[in-house]
Amino acid sequence: MFEPIIAIVLVLIGYALGSAKLINEGNQALVERLGRRHRTLKPGLNFIVPLVDQIVMEDTTREQILDIKPQNVITSDNIYLEVDAVVYWHIVDMEKSFYQIDDLQEALNNLSTTTLRQTIAQKTLEETNRQLDEMDEIILRKLNQATRDWGVEILRVDIQSITPPESVRDSMEEQRAAEIKSRAMITEAEGERQAAIKKAEGTKDSMRIIAEALRSNPESREILRYLVAQDYVDASQKLSESTNAKIIFMDPGKSKEIYEQMVADEVSGVGNGSSSENGSL
Prior knowledge:
The protein is α+β, with helices and mostly antiparallel strands. It has helices spanning 3-19, 94-99, 104-121, 125-130, 132-147, 166-216, 220-241, 255-280, and strands at residues 20-23, 27-33, 36-41, 44-47, 53-60, 64-74, 80-91, 152-163.
């Protein structure tokens, strides 16, 4: 008497177990009924009709990574490059990703590779090194235009490395070294120019001070004569220490006249310069 009831209970239990489908968070599943597209199962506990409904696809809607293998690309100036990139994408429409394209992963890989090669082929070697961010945006925009019908959105494109041949790398290193050397020489020349300007300004100030001292106190002429003579002696000593210098002997009897003439020239030159300077003011 209880056997039919037990059988019915077992059938109901089997039906419940067969119809219950648990979809994990971040996933979706496609259900076909009698071979035709029926509905999409969301995360959580879902029920289908056994033997009538069939889950044909379950996939994630989370972000996925497509690693593009290194590609050999020729730039517009005929330089061979090896380019490595990564594409970040996710499914936004599960039905389109299943019904509009046969092999989504393979299609994305081929499309990304082709778009990458075409984009870089339109650039020169110098442009590829300077415009990485711009090329990422160009490739991203082109990929999204093509994958929209597949229910896929490309989130980011990252060109990780661009490797030129060894000969080109050596030439680039030499060019960078030459640029660094050129900048260093320019900096050194500018420093020498500034030092010369400072020295000239210091000499001018010293001459002005001496001229003013001589005008206010004529007795200072003896001090100036001594300083000039001392400079002459120092210069002669340095000249004699040089390995290729020639020694010039001066008549001691005329040294006083020479010193006085040097002092007179110094004072005359300073005085004229000071007068013209005061006149201009």
